[in-house]
């Protein structure tokens, strides 16, 4: 992965049917960095990710891959430059881990280009990186939630793209597995230089792991930048409608959001 | 990369390669066994009957020799019928596997969701209202299958097609088409209705080369088309978004697969009637033999071929003096499986 692909949106408008979800959105994914997108439910963060992966057709504006409209780029070119892990992918019944990861090689094959040694190497490398090699011949059905998520990430990695978009990869996982997945993504970002865009629900995990944070509300970007620069009490209030205290995270020194509800508050 | 990491990578790649090889060997073995099973049923159909023709004589007839009696029995009566059984089973098995894998639902088989019903309604209409037979009748059945398939697709369309909705709408369409068919039959002469009933049970009785050639011609086009289109199935099985992320053309790929699988059902139904449950049970049998190997299209096609051929043999010889329609025999296998599937789905609270 020597070439760094760049992904941007310009004046992007998106909607389902009559309903407009996003309009006039300009977003740049910093190459080689880990970007986290946060925002309340239905703020358009998943929609943005889908559009950037060319799964949705914009109603206005463009998504640019290396400066070129992604809808004018060939499907194979897109699929070898950027990968997308949706929130709820479907594992076919009884499929084995190795087979599922192998399906990540889809864009590298064709009707006349069947499985090669490069495919085996790509799959093996992806499984090593995500530590699922020892599960290779197990059925995906019988894995734990955390293992399964690592297998899906392995599949996305086997695609060998240097941009990877992940829609809430930590949902349904317990806290220790959430950290496992985010540590894994950080490793991939640092060791392989993969550009990552991740949608997360947990604001504090977002602050901890993001190089670049994008906070969205009602289909627009409210703030973006390094978490230390953008996360403030007023931003949390504006985006989530939540009163909070922002203090330095004792583990990382980054901002940590302490939410304030109506009860059990000892100091204002 | 340091030396140990490089070694680990090589070792891991070798391990992936070994697993792949083991899968391929198992795939080849299962296909070979299914092929042998189909061949055994085929030979049984050729040799055993009112007059038994020993294998050596069958071989003689097939290579252009043999005496007149065995020549007539084998070449005129049994060979077209057995070949038709194989071809029809192949088409149903392949089509069922495509539908079930694509719609991710074991109930999503053309004989349950109304595609076969469309073909048979059109065939009944064509033969009774327009007096068509032969190739024209086959064309009518094919058109009926395609119209039913298109109707289900359009009704199930909500900016994309989900398996569950497709199945439910398909079952509804099937019910409508069956009543249409019954209405047509009530308007017909008794003898015509009698013939239609036998055809509707799915029968190979009295089938000859006239039914076989059109089917073989269509299958020679449709089977390769289906297998070519099935490349996108490996991605589509992971859900629309994951498939799109892998660079599959989701809607186009799904449409191509549905169209070719629907056409397969149409031409097979035209040749032999809607032989029940073959498209429904062949894929799960094949998948059970090859767990974790995806859609198992080719094994399912071979299973269908062996199943129909064996069922037709049973249909001819199960009861003395009577030839059952082959569809009755396949239903004996298929109906309990459907009940089991529904009972299991009810317990698990999902569509299979």
**How many strands in all of chain B?**
0
Biggest sheet strand order of chain A reads 6-7-8-3-9-10
| Average pLDDT number of chain A | 90
DSSP helix fraction of chain A:
25-40%
**Overall average pLDDT of chain B:** 87
Helices and strands of chain A, in order, run as EEEHEEHEHHHEHEHEEHHEE
Characterise this structure:
The complex is a heterodimer of chains A (268) and B (352). Chain A has a single domain (7-259), classed as Rossmann fold (3-Layer(aba) Sandwich). Chain A has a 6-stranded mixed beta sheet, sandwiched between helices. Chain A contains 9 helices and 12 strands. In chain A, 46% of the residues are buried. The radius of gyration of chain A is 19 Å and the shape is globular. Chain A has 268 residues and is of the alpha/beta class. Chain B has one domain: ABC transporter involved in vitamin B12 uptake, BtuC (Orthogonal Bundle). Chain B contains 14 helices and no strands. The model of chain B has no long low-confidence stretch (mean pLDDT 87). Classes of the chains: A alpha/beta (268), B mainly alpha (352). The interface between A and B is large, with 49 and 34 residues.
